[in-house]
Amino acid sequence: MTKHSKSASSYSRRDTLRMMALGGAAGIFAPHLLTKPAFGQKAARTPKGRIVVGLSQEPTVFNPLMAHIEVDDGVHFSVFDALFRIDPKGVIQPNLAVEVPTQKNGGISEDGLKWRIRLRDDVRWHDGKPFTAEDVKFTLELITKPNFRSWRTTGHSLVRDIAVVSPVEITWRMEQAFAPYLSFLTETFVVPKHILEKEADPNNAAFNQAPIGTGAFKWGTRVPGDRVELVANSNYFGDGPYIERLIFKYIPDLTVLYTQFKSGDIDLVGQTYISPDHYEEARKLPSRVVTLEPKSSFESFYLNLERPQFKELQVRQALYAAIDKKAIIDGLYYGVPTPTETFMPRQSFYYNPGLPVQEFSVKRAQQILDAAGWVPGKDRIRVKDGVRLSFTNSTTSGDPLREQVQQYLQQAFAEIGVEMTISNLPAAVMWGEFWQRSRFDSVIVGSTYLIGADPDVTNRLHSNAIGNKGGRGSNNAQYVNPEVDSLLEKGSRTFDPEARRAIYFRVQELVRHDLPLLPLYQNIAVQGHKKGIQGAVSNGNTRTESWNAGAWSWAS
Amino acid sequence: MRGFLLNRLSQSLALLVIVSIIGFIILSLIPGGPLSQYARDPSMTQQDMERLAEQLGLNRPLWIQYFDWVWRLVQGDWGRSFRDGTSVLTVIGRHIFATLLLMGTSTVIAIAIGTWIGIRGATHRYSMFDYLATIGAMVALSIPTFWFGLVGIYVFSLQLGWVPAGNMYTIGDGSVLNYLHHLILPSVVLSLVHVAVWSRYMRTATLDAISQDFVKTARAKGLSERRILLKHVVGNALLPMITLAGVQLPSILTGALVTETVFTWPGMGRLFLDSLGYSDYPVVMGLLIFSAILVILGNLIADIVVAIVDPRIRLA
Amino acid sequence: MTALAISTAPSRWWHSRAVIRFISHRLALLGLAMITLLTLACVLGPYLLPYDSLHIDLRARFAPPMTGNHYLGTDPLGRDLAARLLMAGRISLLVGFSAMLLSIVIGTLVGVVAGYRGGWIGAVLMRTVDGFLSFPSIFLVLALAAALRPSPIMITVIIAVTKWMEVARIVEAEVRSLREREFVQAGRMLGLSGTHIMFREILPNAMGPIIVAASLTVARAILLEAYISFLGFGIQPPLPSWGNMLNGAQKYLASAPWLAIIPGAAITIAVTSFNFIGDGLRDALDVRDDHI
Prior knowledge:
Chain A is α+β, with helices and mostly antiparallel strands. Helices cover 26% and strands 21% of the residues of chain A. Chain A has helices spanning 10-26, 73-79, 133-143, 181-185, 193-196, 254-263, 279-283, 313-321, 325-332, 362-371, 400-415, 427-430, 433-436, 458-461, 482-493, 497-514; strands at 50-55, 84-86, 92-94, 114-118, 159-166, 169-174, 217-223, 227-232, 245-250, 268-274, 288-303, 338-339, 375-376, 382-384, 387-388, 390-394, 419-422, 442-448, 517-530, 533-534, 553-554. In chain A, helix 11 links the parallel strand 16 (390-394) and strand 17. In chain A, helix 8 (313-321) packs antiparallel against helix 10 and helix 15 (482-493) runs antiparallel to helix 16 (497-514). The longest helix of chain A has 18 residues, at 497-514. By secondary structure, chain B is an all-alpha fold. The interface between A and B is large, with 63 and 51 residues.
């Protein structure tokens, strides 16, 4: 196995993981687990010192309900609370709620339609006003307000009849059973009604630039283009905070980010972490803790199946066989990432370990193509029925490592008589219509399929999620498999983890067989912090390293 | 004078309109758009994307978007960033200090060194110094600024460890000394080209001045060479330099953009690249207009100053 | 105007004053020699080197200069840097040269028409020139490069689009001053068409400044290509250009500094040479223009 799990052997880890996932989803665990220092060590109650987190992108959106990107999450998790929070083992824990609703404890009705959430009574907003069920109702309603520039509305748009039973109890009805919603709620931060209801236009509220939450840290100052400073909320109801100030420092260059970590200017490396080529050096730095942490995203060679070149399964199999994953991972990525056969992250309870493992063989690739009737033409590029085995590949410009992979594959494919031309685009162009309307031949892309830790991947793989065909999601490979469709539909209505597990195992098998995308490897982040920092635990089920900054402390 | 001013102002206004139209058209040609950054989020559906496009007014016809933008601009509303909803003027305001600091410092360096080289070259014409300065200036004009920056980082920061490799200051240390320490390398790098330009102009200007009658008169009066040089020659040579400063503005801005990238300097250049990367149209347009205004103002002020000093211009 | 020296060149052109003055300009000769060498190296070099500029060999990555047959070392994919440098030179020089030609054509056209016609046509044309000049050109170039797919041809066009204005200004000023000369008026009296007068009578007399501007524009075009490619908006890999070779180099500055130093040196040499040549031409053709 790889080195990404330093703490325990991966086998025993997976077992605990399974138990936890089951237990968590079933809600056996005691409430308030998160509020006690379940992870991280106990530290003195008076907040001391500051921690500087270095980020390579700048957090700019501070209203957690508005459209934002990954890097904003660190601030949201620190300033706000959601009803639930997901822990590193994938277990959903209560946060503003006192327990996680399940069908067993009656929080969710048998048909999955009626939800009842009980809330904490000891939570106050940073301005001292008490937090109540009214705030939750306001939050859920604001998300679906037509003129509000909100982030995802999936799940939220199914919520009806929100009723405040008491300040500490809220109920609603779902238009249809939707199991992933619980997971979504772990990333739905509650905003204060008493402040935002006064705003005529919530899109441009002053709140968005100086948010008020219930979280472990209060808003401090922001120096745009440079840093965001948060200060300790000493009245926090949960664990911590143990540090006086939390600073998110924006350092746009990865090399500089690493250099500043080395020199000690930043205490903890945040997104997008230490680049793989610095891993060997970083590991040996004195008084730094550098670990490999699996991320939820994985890298793939993603195909547009509507292109005549890629319609045949054999072509996709041949391309896959021609990829020397080991050479790429060891040669270009310094051995950091782990090869994978699926979109499901290894740390997930739903990860299927039994998928066939890709074998690199130029010869086999050539045989497959020969057998399928693709004959080399005069220019050594294979042709069949007038279709040349030639296509373009795109990725976002400005990522040297990915561009190296691309050029390496270009050479590898040339060896089996396949021509790949490179056409890279700036991010804003790449992920526009080019991606959303499937205008590409193939792309190299790192993507996350799961929302939170929920295994539902309808948006990525269901045939009604093809944006180019008027679908609602981002199945941009235009992958169609009726069995996958029906499995996904069943999975999103199923609440029982074991039953869901079987469903998503089968989905992974089918996708591995059909190869709408050639899975390369799961992304592994090289994370690092100073030795003195306690409680900095990575959480692959969230998008940020700063998901539990409240529990961070300096060893005295 | 008033007629001259009005004429120049109306011309400048027409320029701004042209600049803004060109900018708007180019931006609209860029495929993709500000929503691309959400496209990889697994939970964003096509409906979510369309809703956001509608809310941001992105699916209106181009000319409506343009007139809407102009109408707001006229009222002093530069629009809001698509990324975080802050007003564009605020965004620019936040980044302008870093850029002005860098540009200012490097201009001071360029003027100081450039003036010295130029005058010395003119007074010691055809000397070894003059010859080397001429070649040096031409080489300096040929070195890519960013490459000079990279080499500078390699030598002075990575090898010698004298100066930091980037950023404007160390976090938690906002002292003036710390700023200066960070400022040395980027401002020297940025000033290189301008030292070259400045010294060439100063040399020519000094040569022109030396041959003037009043210098001969001053010499005849028996004033010391040094005094003549400082009072008459430099004084007269500085006038064309004001025009030069105006004309040089765009190139300083360009240089600043590249220098900021190499040194991760949090200024307008980086802001422009970032905003372009996110297709944050309001900010990109704001920066285009802002820099165009800066350039036009620079030229205008230079013209006015010259016109005041030299009344013949007004008639022209 | 001494520019007449060209149009009235004697039969033995090497006896002309301009040529003699150019030859006596040592720097210009040096520049010419360096450019010739560089061009020859870029054209012939790749055939003489043992490696292909695109051949990837992961086992040989990051070899420092003078490792085996890798005279200049290798890049992060183990490709031979010398081979890439020379191939890149082809692209960069070609882009620089073509961009110059294109911008000279556009600039001359606009300049001649604006200068000769004057009036509102001239005013509109020249205000447009001012408009283009008011952008710091890098902003314009980056926005354009983001808008259009960056192929070498596109990059050439983009550079030309942002570099023609200076030529237009120079030509316009020159033409305006020539417009009222006797030979032009004579042409008008003879009933020659405007186009004929503009391009047959006036233009040849304005060639001096245009030639000088041309050599300086090549220099600037090469620099500009390097800037955009460095920022990742220009020529796309695996096609090498001097600029995009520098694109990823900052990342490896500490571990493989040659990746940054070598292509930059090539750019500097090429640009310096063109500037030397331009300077020599300016002296030889006796052009004095503050715009250049």
